């Protein structure tokens, strides 16, 4: 899916890690939430409250789910994160991502 239709986008950015990771919250027509964002090169650890799916649109990174091995994505790819867990990313080049929840 390259385009989101009939959505509401929150204007205020979600800013993390001193501005190296930013996103905008998108409310989808079915009431679910997603975020669209950019990650600059660096290493980051995130925690989850609910299940998440990270869809990488462009860029290069390695990710590691809790107690897992490092997996590389170049260009497009995706991965799922369990609720109440954490994951790490090592961003090599600017990453464009779309994250859905639940």
TrEMBL record:
Keywords: Glycosyltransferase, Transferase. Its EC number is 2.4.2.1, 2.4.2.2. It catalyses: uridine + phosphate = alpha-D-ribose 1-phosphate + uracil; thymidine + phosphate = 2-deoxy-alpha-D-ribose 1-phosphate + thymine; a purine D-ribonucleoside + phosphate = a purine nucleobase + alpha-D-ribose 1-phosphate; cytidine + phosphate = cytosine + alpha-D-ribose 1-phosphate. InterPro entries: Ppnp (IPR009664), RmlC-like_jellyroll (IPR014710), RmlC_Cupin_sf (IPR011051). CDD domains: cupin_PpnP-like. The keyword Glycosyltransferase applies. Signal peptide: none annotated. It comes from the Bacteria. Catalyzes the phosphorolysis of diverse nucleosides, yielding D-ribose 1-phosphate and the respective free bases. Can use uridine, adenosine, guanosine, cytidine, thymidine, inosine and xanthosine as substrates. Also catalyzes the reverse reactions. Belongs to the nucleoside phosphorylase PpnP family. This is Pyrimidine/purine nucleoside phosphorylase. It comes from Marinicrinis sediminis. The lineage of its organism: Bacteria, Bacillati, Bacillota, Bacilli, Bacillales.
């Amino acid at each position: 899916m390259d385009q989101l239709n009939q959505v509401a986008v929150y204007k205020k950015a979600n800013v993390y890690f001193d501005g190296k990771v930013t996103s905008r919250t998108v409310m989808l027509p079915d009431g679910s939430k997603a975020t669209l964002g950019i990650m600059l090169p660096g290493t980051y650890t995130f925690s989850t409250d609910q299940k998440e799916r990270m869809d990488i649109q462009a860029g290069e990174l390695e990710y590691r789910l809790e107690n897992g091995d490092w997996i590389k994505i170049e260009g497009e790819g995706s991965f799922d994160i369990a609720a109440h867990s954490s994951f790490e990313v090592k961003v090599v080049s600017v990453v464009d991502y779309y994250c859905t929840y639940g």
